[in-house]
Design a protein that fits this description.
By secondary structure, the chain is mainly α. Helix content is 80%, strand content 0%.
Amino acid sequence: MNKAIHLIHRWTGLLIGLFFLISCLSGLLIVFGKLIGSYAPIFKLATKLHTHLFAGSFGREIIGVATLLAIPEILTGYWLWGKQTLALTRSSRKRGERGYSALAKMAGFKFPNWCMGVHNGAGFWSGLPLLIMILTGLTWSFGWYSEIVYALFDSADSGGWESNLFHTLHALHVGSWEGMLSRLLWLVAVALGASLPVSGLLIYLKKSRKRMPSNHK
């Protein structure tokens, strides 16, 4: 099972890595623009890139599919992170070290391999905020998903309920539910998220070189 999850995480990451990077970098510009209260052209361009890649409905579909695939990517990442943390914890205890040293290492960017450390630490701290952004953002990507979300939170109240839910989803997506503090948290999370496809690709390339036969190096 662990091998299957690892394969899902690796190949899903390679498949959506470029789109994930584009979404994070454009989202970073959007959040930063809202943070400083600017409506400069660069932030408007970032919004178009973030929502439809300058390709209209077709680009919106691509972003939607890539965003949907990011859900198993994040969940499998947490699974692999947890398995590795448990293994390191057992190893630390055998050496007489404190149990939480492995957790501190895996969450604190301190893995012996710097690239793996960046990937593990960034994934741990940004995964949950990114998952919230993904689950809320999908309501603007797919009509069927939006219908499910609105049906789940259906209410007998009629006065402006759908409008309130829309604003709640938007606030959770852009990080505006607690003003400046939540925007800053989302800004950091998106910045860390942007590093994940880069560090993930470097890890994959490094492991591929190790698996390559010596006569092909």
